[in-house]
Design brief:
By secondary structure, the chain is an all-alpha fold. The protein is built from 18 helices and no strands. α1 packs antiparallel against α4, α4 runs parallel beside α7 and α8 runs antiparallel to α9. The protein is globular. The N and C termini lie far apart (about 55 Å). The relative contact order is 0.08.
Length: about 325
């Protein structure tokens, strides 16, 4: 018993060390890439303007962007000051959340894959798309933070998950799936009728902020309003892109995109390094393409097997992830 307590204490010290190391590395990345993207993408002005208007108790000019990130940026802008306070506030918000995302990637991953979550967190935070989103003062880094924190609380069976899921819905609309994920997990684990009723009430209350925001969207809607809902209900949205809808969407296309974002960076350095030292022959290039195709098949097979086996073993955490990920993927793949 004493030996078991000693082992548990050592593991606790190791976890504290990991958290400190992850935070230190995340802070290093935040400092390194702070202000890296001088000209933000076009969503930024809408995001921060919405925050300023709400803090001034004004009806937003547009309800296109969910309000949480804009409010946080507007609050920080009053503190940072300077020549471009809004932009600096956007960088700062990402810089604060990025190290926390690294810790949360490990904490959430540990609940699913165990000790291997260390490598999962490191690989994820080094992904160049994650780093790119760190440099853009828009919603993605905040969405990752609130989504991961919600999943962590769901896995811990904490009722606070409904509060975080509710906030995430007004970080970006796809966060609504997190409320469903929390509710379904509660329905699986709740043992009494009273607990199930409480979970239902929590989920109903959690959807209120998004419902109010969508109500404001409907009440202020005018012909020609630019909004993400146009992708579902109008043809004008598709006409705003140079590429046709067919060329931008599709399940297979987006599955390949997932591989490009998640797996391709793991192989890219090796293939590019070889190309830097010697000119690749046609046969070598074909071999690399074949390897990439094989890795795509293996990624799909491993993913399907992991999901099926996990659900068979009643690892309901995987179900929570699927409830969020599948609608998110289909929405972006089809529209």
């Amino acid at each position: 018993q004493i030996e078991a307590q000693e082992i548990a204490k050592q593991e606790q010290y190791f976890e504290i060390f990991l958290i400190a190391a992850f935070l230190a590395f995340g802070i290093y990345q935040s400092v390194l890439y702070f202000g890296h993207q001088v000209v933000p993408i076009s969503d930024f002005p809408d995001i921060v303007r919405t925050g300023h208007e709400l803090l001034s108790f004004k009806v937003p000019t547009r309800f296109k962007q969910a309000p949480v990130v804009g409010i946080l940026q507007a609050l920080l802008s009053h503190w940072v000051g300077g020549q471009h306070p809004d932009l600096t506030a956007g960088w700062l918000l990402n810089a604060i959340l990025h190290p926390l995302n690294l810790v949360l990637l490990w904490l959430v991953g540990k609940r699913i894959v165990g000790k291997s979550a260390i490598w999962f967190a490191i690989i994820a935070i080094l992904n160049y798309w994650v780093i790119y989103m760190l440099t853009e003062p828009i919603i993605e880094t905040s969405l990752l933070f609130f989504s991961l924190l919600t999943f962590y609380l769901i896995f811990k069976r904490s009722s606070w998950c409904y509060v975080l899921a509710s906030i995430t819905t007004v970080v970006r609309y796809e966060g609504a799936a997190l409320i469903l994920a929390a509710f379904v997990i509660d329905m699986i684990y709740c043992k009494s009728k009273r607990e199930r009723i409480r979970a239902f009430l929590y989920s109903a209350m959690a959807i209120v902020p998004l419902a109010l925001w969508l109500l404001g969207t409907v009440l202020t809607w005018k012909p020609g309003t630019s909004h993400y809902l146009n992708v579902l209900f109008t043809k004008e949205y598709a006409e705003g892109f140079a590429d046709s809808v067919k060329d931008r969407t599709g399940i297979v296309r987006h599955m390949k995109l997932l591989w490009t974002v998640g797996f391709y960076p793991l192989f890219r350095l090796a293939t590019e390094a070889k190309g830097n030292f010697e000119k690749l022959t046609v046969g070598q290039i074909d071999s690399i393409k074949t390897f990439f195709s094989f890795s795509q098949i293996m990624a799909i097979a491993a993913g399907v097997f992991g999901v099926v086996y996990g659900l068979y073993e009643r690892q309901w955490k995987i179900l929570a992830l699927l409830i969020f990920f599948i609608p998110y993927f289909l929405l972006h793949a089809l529209y």
